Amino acid sequence: ERDLMWKMLIMFMTSNYTVVQWPPVLDPLHPGESVTLQCSIISVFDKATCSEDLSVFWFRAESNKSHPNIIYTHGNTHDECENRSEAQKRCVYRFSKNVSSSDAGTYYCAVDICGEILFGNGTALKLETLPRTASTLKLKAEILLFVSGLFICLIADKFGLSN
Q1: Which residues form the Ig-like domain (predicted)?
Q2: pLDDT in tens, 59-80
Q3: Structural domain boundaries of the chain?
Q4: Max CA-CA distance within the chain?
């Protein structure tokens, strides 16, 4: 396991490409809300030695499963590319979806380019268990109970009904 980590680190350090995934963490979402994840591939022109045909894969790793599931692939297409300088190019790939109750997990992009597979750092997606309206109603009920109890205590104290 340690040897594999070293090999991956050396591959990352010697690669002509860098993969950056954003955002790293999302605020908890409710089912039905939309989310967009972004994967950027940055290449260094003077070090690149092959054509830049690449494939981008998105997959989700659930905390209770040992193997991640591929959920989406970009073929040989670029969502958005730009030359950042004379020696650097960045291509951005986006993955959007409406969240369902079973979508919690860590989402990763993986890029297959020039015989290398480079991974993004992952985005953690957490879900709220209560729908927004139910959590709001619960909070309002708790506040109402607290205020009612406080009011009863004040009335009891005013009329000498407390011990």
Answers
A1: 32-111
A2: 998 877 667 777 877 765 556 7
A3: 2-129, 130-163
A4: 88
